[in-house]
Model the fold of this input.
Amino acid sequence: MGERQRTWREIGVSNLFLYFIMLVALFVLSIWFLYVGLNYYTRGEFETAAMMILAGFFGSGLSLLVLRRLRRRMILLQPPVLNVVTVEQCDKCGFKNMKKFEHGDYVFKKADKCPKCGELTTITSIYFEGLGKKGYP
Amino acid sequence: MFQVFQIFGGDATQSIIGYIISFAFFMIFIMFWGKIQVYTWLREIEGALNRIKFIRDEARRISIETVKSVGKPKEDPTQKIDQFLEYFFIEPTGMDPSGIVWKFDHLLDVRDLRFKDEVRVMAPEADEAQVNNLENLLEASLDLNMIYKVVRHYYLFGKKTSSQFIIIQLQMIMPLIMQIVDAYMGAVNAFSTGQPIGDGAGAFVAAKMMHGTEARKIAKDMVVSEVPIDGRRVFVTKAEGPGGNVGKPGDAIKTIIDECDGKVSMIIMIDAQVKLEGENSGDTAEAIGAAIGGVGTEKYKIEEALFKYKIPVNAILIKESIQEAISPMKKEVVNGVEKTIAVVKRLINERTKPGDTVIVAGIGNTIGIGQ
Done:
């Protein structure tokens, strides 16, 4: 656990958090600019309103774009979750069973007893079905 | 506070200030655009480098944990593992190319022996298959460490010299490097648990064909079975599983040919092939020639034996991406294995007569695949 904490610090998670706070602050400020801009517009000060609305749109767009990139970067830093399955098959009755891969499984290893005929099943295949919720592409 | 926005549209003095500021901005961009661009590229490389470092550290952590859980060492193996991750291979000189294949072969044998000895010391309780898996795991971690150090070298060198050419080259190849790094992380996961990897597709075909028959050792880390198919005598060979192993297919094929006094009608080699973008994983392609990767020593031995006895060689390739080749085997590749067995049988029927002798060699890492 200590190892993991040190690793996260090394990759600059605290810096990323500060960056995140700054982006959220920029987004809030941009929304406020939009609000003030609309107020100017209703008062008939079109030139100032245009400037404020433009700044608001630009700031909110930029912060959302960078936040999206930051989120992608954080997802890429997650360790992979791989769904690997083991297929067991009974040589006698052909019964097939799929289960989660366990350490020590290998193809053509004699596995559990067949629930239908009681013969030992054989692992016929092990494959990777897809990624879990988070992981490398 | 908002007067700053009005300087462009105010009186004459304010307009002049506005023009001066605009002109100053324009000049700064003209003069420092190159520097800004270099800074942006460096930031992108730095982000990717941080990720490589994170993955390298994860691989190291997984290696240490796996060695501890499988090998049950009495002492902490961390120092030995850190030392292992710094190993590298010195290639023989190519100044006099005559005989270089055998020099390479010898050095690769020495490397393999040395690595396995190191693993046995680190993990005294591990059996032979686990030693092979641990060796593969440590090699994947070693490669990740090497990639990190090389990328870091060019990043720091580019930064130090402010050379746009070094920085832009590194920035341009970063997506390719990141794909390889991700694939290696997949390999680390597979090797730590003993899961079959995409590269083992050829070995999987051979294992399926020889399953249920008696297998015997034929060369270093290689097994062979005699399988009768439609009246033909078919020798099926692969690396000895289920430990992570590629074996010496060149030696195995040469020994089988010698045992048959050169009377072999055809050799079929099955291997994984790196697909092109747009091609589907698990698709098969037929080819002529020795289908085997690596440094080239095994390919050389096979071609020498084929040429000596004028034996035709056919190949069946199972397509997959470079990432899939070293990550846990995908379902599409397993489906490709089934299709390949049918192609092997068709080739044997079409190109040989009953009573002929055929060699089928399943090439690739046999991790997680028995026989």
